[in-house]
Write a structure and sequence with these properties.
Blueprint: H1 4-14, E1 19-22, E2 25-32, E3 35-42, E4 53-57, E5 60-61, E6 65-66, E7 69-70, H2 88-101, E8 105-106, H3 109-119, H4 146-150, H5 165-172, H6 178-185, H7 188-195, H8 199-262, H9 267-294, H10 304-332
Antiparallel strand pairs: 1-2, 2-3, 3-4, 5-8, 6-7
Length: 351
């Protein structure tokens, strides 16, 4: 069980704005949507065996408030005070959160007059239909004039603030006493039934249905667009896959070309092959010349000299043609080809 000092420290640390008034009293100012509210926490003499006493000011209407006393223990679903386990800070924090999420309404003298007028009549009697609170005397009074509390505006008539006949009938059905209004405010189902009878609520419900239909149509449009986009994305992915496959084939072909260029079709090997062919042509002409000077050259036509000249010129033509090709290959080849011209045989022939 925590001591008194630990309780004070936990309260000041957990509750924003809490301040210690005396040795047995703590003040927690609250700024609610319905107006300012002061929550006073008083520690009884037998605290912590007894729960702290919670009071509020000014007077308000709330299911947990009776008079000016806030009865936290009667609130359904709340954690009651446990002398052995409870700590003042978390205990007050849940009270503040409950008041903030469901702020109480300010109680006014107009409401008290309404309750007094009802109490002076026979119990259970209905208020005369001709009785209606004065709009001038109840301006800004949330409880005496429920339409201000509801703050519902007919969407089709934003400029009109007059209360319709149906709204007047609805007001006639509201409880006339403070206890009756308190019970109504504490019963969510009863509030829903009461509010559903208002023309403005029905208009807003119809507008909500129209809005839901419009939102559904918009959502369907978005879904259709996403489906169309998904189809386009699938086509783009398919094209990207085809492009990747084509790039792979191109890389394979480029690798094959590179292998051929570095191997069979390397510049230096091409130069060597052309040089060999040119050398063969030169050797052939040399062989013809040697046979002619040795007298062993013969021609089937019997004209050995003319036949030799024709054969020798054809051989030398092939040599010069291949030598020119070799020069061109050596000129446009890479530096790795060396000097292919040096592989050429000497062109010291008379033709």
């Amino acid at each position: 069980m925590a001591n008194i000092l630990q309780h004070w420290q936990s309260a000041l640390a957990a509750v924003p704005g809490a301040r210690r008034v005396s040795d047995a009293e703590l003040a927690v100012p609250l700024h609610l949507s319905t107006g300012p509210l002061l929550l006073s926490v008083t520690l009884p003499a037998d605290f912590p065996a007894a729960a702290p006493v919670l009071t509020v000011s000014p007077p308000v209407v709330h299911p947990m408030v009776e008079g000016n006393t806030l009865n936290w223990e009667r609130a359904a679903g709340r954690d009651p005070w446990n002398p052995q386990a409870s700590l003042l800070g978390p205990y007050l924090l849940q009270v503040v959160q409950a008041l903030t999420s469901r702020p109480p309404l300010q109680a006014t003298s107009s409401l008290v007059r309404r309750g007094s007028a009802r109490d002076s009549t026979t119990p259970g009697a209905r208020r005369p239909a001709s009785y209606m609170p004065s709009s001038s005397s109840n301006a800004g009074n949330a409880l005496a004039r429920p339409m201000s509390m509801l703050a519902l505006q007919n969407p089709s008539s934003s400029a009109s603030t007059a209360t319709s006949n149906d709204d007047k009938d609805w007001i006639q059905q509201l409880p006339d006493t403070l206890d009756g209004l308190t019970r109504l405010l504490g019963d969510d189902d009863a509030q829903h039934v009461q509010l559903a009878q208002l023309d403005r609520v029905r208009a807003m419900t119809a507008a909500r249905a129209d809005l839901l239909e419009s939102n559904t149509a918009a959502a369907q449009t978005v879904v259709d667009q996403r489906l169309a986009l998904a189809s386009r994305l699938a086509a783009v992915r398919e094209t990207a896959e085809k492009l990747a496959a084509a790039q792979d084939r191109w890389r394979e072909t480029a690798a094959e070309h590179a292998a051929l260029a570095a191997g069979k079709y390397a510049p230096e090997k091409l130069v060597a092959r052309v040089a060999n062919v040119a050398a063969e042509a030169d050797a052939e002409s040399e062989k013809l010349q040697a046979a002619f000077w040795a007298g062993s050259f013969t021609s089937p036509e019997g004209d050995d000299t003319d036949a030799f000249v024709r054969a020798y010129r054809a051989s030398r033509k092939r040599f010069h043609t291949r030598s020119c090709r070799l020069e061109v290959v050596a000129r446009v080849g890479t530096a790795r080809a060396g000097s292919p011209v040096s592989a050429m045989p000497p062109a010291n022939r008379p033709f």
